[in-house]
Amino acid sequence: xxxPLRVLVVEDSEVDTMLILRELRRSGFxxxxxxxxxxxxxxxxxxxxxxxxxxxxYALPQFGGAAALALFKxxxxxxxxxxxxxxxxxxxxVEMMKAGAHDYVLKHNLARLSPAVTRELAAAEERRARxxxxxxxxxxxxxxxxxxxxxxxxxxxxxxxxxNYGAETxxxxxxxxxxxxxxxxxxxxxxxNDLSEVYERVKRGERVERFETMRIRKDGTPVEVSLTISPLxxxxxxxxxxxxxxxxxxxxxxEEAEWLRLIRELTEALAHVKTLSGLLPICASCxxxxxxxxxxxxxxxxxxxxSDADFTHGICPDCVKRLYPEYQIxxxxxxxxxx
Length: 339
Fold this sequence. Notes:
Layout: E1 3-10, H1 14-26, E2 29-36, H2 39-48, E3 53-56, H3 65-74, E4 81-85, H4 90-99, E5 103-106, H5 113-146, E6 150-155, E7 160-163, H6 165-171, H7 175-178, H8 192-203, E8 208-216, E9 222-233, E10 239-248, H9 250-271, E11 289-290, E12 296-297, H10 299-306, H11 317-323, H12 331-336
Parallel strand pairs: 1-2, 1-3, 3-4, 4-5
Antiparallel strand pairs: 6-7, 6-10, 8-9, 9-10, 11-12
Helix pairs in contact: 2-3
């Protein structure tokens, strides 16, 4: 089974077209073709199909290779356009190549056709892959640049090579101010050892995640950050740099400190709360309570010392009747009689 190949042939001779297709089949292709020989026919073919290759004669009665190449260029296609002609001088061949043709082959030497087709198909595929890669890189670069997180690219020596908008916002330095300078500009003097330890890990190809540390902004104020540092490798897998994503955690740290303060205050408050529990020895007669040291205390004295309760004093109705039988006091009045 040959390699499928969709070929648009600009040629007025059916015999020459047959010879071109036979040469392609002989070289392992399986061409599906259409032959055109006018401007209208070529426009219709270009608009109605997807082609891998255009093979064009140079001189046709009503339509020539130059006109065919012009239509091809107008469409903005990136597929091989190869001139196959019976008589094409060197000067005209150079003109066609400068105008955008990819190669030319003489009809009496069709053995050159298949190698030229193979080469140009590979080159076209390489161009498509390169465009796709460039588009992907541009897309990723756009994402990095617009990201709110600080994303910084560095060499293994700590030289800044990329600096996005998030880094400008977090650290206060513009890209122009930082690219080409050492990242140590952001590091407090007492944190230099952190940088060397992290870089050693990155050089070994390790990824460092959620590394919390301190950095210094352009205005000299400190900022607490959480760093994720990833090794950057070349095509051979060798570590050539590092990419750092920094998150500002100052707000989170402030909230954590506030939570700890509240927890500490609550713990201290709870430590001062007095509660009564367990068995309390109480005199069956006078109702005094024995404390932990063996001393007997009035009930109100003991409870006040071991809880946050306080006492007001009054006389219950039963005691009024017993102690003051000569008075007739209503219960509501007794409840109000406190001293």
